[in-house]
Each structure stands twice: as C-alpha cells, then as structure tokens.
C-alpha cells in the first residue's frame, strides 16, 4: 500500500502535499479502501494489513528521528487519526453524492486547503473506482 500511496500522480497531478503528513493521508486512504474490500471476506488478512501498516509506520517514525520515548505517543496519535479518517471515508463512500467524499478528502488529504476542484474530483473518482471495483488489483489505477 505504501508504494501505491506514493505514486507520483497523486503529488504531481492531484496536488496531494508531498510531505510526511500527505503520505500518511494517502496510506490511510489506500488502507481504508483495502480494508473495505476485505470486510466480511477475510478478517485475518485485514488484521495482517493493519499490523503491517503499524509496523511500517513505527519504523518510518523512528527513521525520522523520533526518540523511543515519543514513539508510543506518536503512534497513538496516528492510530486515532487513521481510525477517524477510515470512518469518515467509509461514510462518505456509502453516500452516492460526491460532495461528502470530496469534502472529506479536502479536510484530510489536503489539510483543508483544496487544490483545483478538478484534482479533488479526480481523487474522489479514483477512490470510488477502487471501492466499486470487483477486483483487488488497484496498482494500475494509481499509475
């Protein structure tokens, strides 16, 4: 998911901030989309995806130079942020109106500062496409 979340298109064409926070937001979006697909299908795989995400984020935080004493606090904040975003994306994707999804993306991915409306619409369409796809092969959509 990290490789997919770092696809250059998101940052160069869709205006996602190319920052630690922007990357976390894209990881959160992609993991949420994957977990939606796995819901009720394979709980063990969903748990493994989450576990791998947390292990990877822990390592990334340490690489950024966050001290051991602060890692747990930072991970708790990231978990809170992730689960809040996952719930918001899930609710927005259940609504057929793109206004809620676009608003959620602006609030989270773009930190309240939307790029061109076409970029937000394209990211919303991308998320909807993955959410509606009957297959889990999402690599081709990010390219």
From TrEMBL:
Coiled-coil regions listed: none
Annotated Ubiquinol-cytochrome c chaperone domain residues: 13-129
Domain of life: Bacteria
InterPro entries in alphabetical order: Ubiq_cyt_c_chap, Ubiqinol_cyt_c_chaperone_CPB3
Family matches, as Pfam families: Ubiq_cyt_C_chap (PF03981)
Span of the signal peptide: none
Homology family: Belongs to the UPF0174 family. Belongs to the CBP3 family.
The protein's name in its UniProt record: Ubiquinol-cytochrome c chaperone domain-containing protein
């Amino acid at each position: 998911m990290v490789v997919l979340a770092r696809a250059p298109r998101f940052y160069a064409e869709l205006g996602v901030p190319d920052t630690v926070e922007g990357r976390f937001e894209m990881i959160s979006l992609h993991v949420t989309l994957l977990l939606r697909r796995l819901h009720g299908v394979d709980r063990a795989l969903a748990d493994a995806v989450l576990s791998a995400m947390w292990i990877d984020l822990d390592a990334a935080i340490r690489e950024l130079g966050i001290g051991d004493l602060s890692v747990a606090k930072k991970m708790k904040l990231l978990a809170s942020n992730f689960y809040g975003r996952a719930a918001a994306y899930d609710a927005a994707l259940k609504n057929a109106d793109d206004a809620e999804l676009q608003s959620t993306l602006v609030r989270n991915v773009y930190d309240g500062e939307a790029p061109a409306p076409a970029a937000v619409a394209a990211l919303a369409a991308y998320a909807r496409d993955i959410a509606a796809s009957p297959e889990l092969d999402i690599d081709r959509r990010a390219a």
